[in-house]
Write a structure and sequence with these properties.
The chain has about 240 residues and is of the alpha/beta class. It contains 8 helices and 12 strands. The protein has a domain at about 1-105 and about 165-175 and about 185-235: Purple Acid Phosphatase, chain A, domain 2.
Length: about 240
């Protein structure tokens, strides 16, 4: 089975629809690792599209802030300003509240941030990766939140940080691994293209990809609705 894994769409419907146009005929399942909303202009549209496509959706910190579950004052000033411009209908807030904060699928732990705190904690370096390996019962964990694609691989007692090459497959057999597909709607690794990965459940490997979309279309919507300039500008820079 071929599972497409994405995270941090952040209300960027142009990025999501561009990806779906590319994968629709080749997708057995779609896993979304949180933060479908926040920052971007099309938050309701993104959630309704994911629901229409029967995606497995986990909540992120931005999602739960919009749903009134978490405090927006834990976010940055620009993030809070964006939150004030976003309105979700009550049925979608209820939908977000029902999303599970963590799941185990195909013997893989799925979270937004980290198993130690699925909503707010980050996995950014080897010390935090060591912490998370102790938290998960499964051999592998897929996570998002940092917007940077990568793999922390634990083998023979050593942790390796891998910055993935696009189109290259990385086996998950004979190791433990924490895997981040990167951000679909707001990459921060210097590449403005959407980042995502494919998990092959038969071969037990992950392959990373990038996808282009109309960044300017999303930026025009954000400008029209008065989003903070930094959030608009960063989309074209991948920061």
């Amino acid at each position: 089975m071929k599972i497409f894994v994405v995270s941090d769409i952040h209300g960027n419907a142009a990025a999501l629809k561009s990806l779906w146009k590319r994968i629709a005929g080749d997708c057995d399942a779609l896993w979304v690792l949180g933060d479908s909303t926040g920052y971007g202009p099309d938050n309701e549209k993104v959630i309704r599209l994911l629901m229409k496509w029967n995606a497995l959706i986990l909540p992120g910190n931005h999602d739960l802030c919009l749903a009134g579950v978490e405090s927006k004052y834990r976010l940055s000033e620009d993030s809070r300003r964006a939150m004030d411009l976003i309105q979700l209908p009550e049925d979608l807030k209820e939908e977000i509240r029902r999303w599970p904060r963590t799941q185990e699928k195909e013997s893989i732990t799925l979270v937004h941030g980290a198993a130690s705190d699925p909503i707010w904690n980050y996995i950014l370096d080897k010390p935090t990766a060591i912490r998370e390996f102790k938290e998960i019962r499964t051999s592998h964990c897929f996570f998002g939140h940092s917007h940077n694609p990568g793999i922390f691989r634990l083998s023979a007692g050593e942790i390796e940080w891998i910055v993935p090459q696009m189109g290259k497959s990385y086996p998950l057999k004979n190791c433990r691994a924490l895997v981040n597909p990167g951000s679909l709607g707001q990459p921060r690794d210097g590449d403005s293209r959407s980042s995502f990965m494919i998990f092959d459940t038969v071969k037990r490997c992950v392959t990373f990809y990038r996808n282009t979309y109309s960044v300017k279309r999303t930026q025009r919507k954000m400008i029209k609705r008065g989003f903070p300039p930094f959030l608009i500008d960063r989309l074209s820079k991948g920061i």
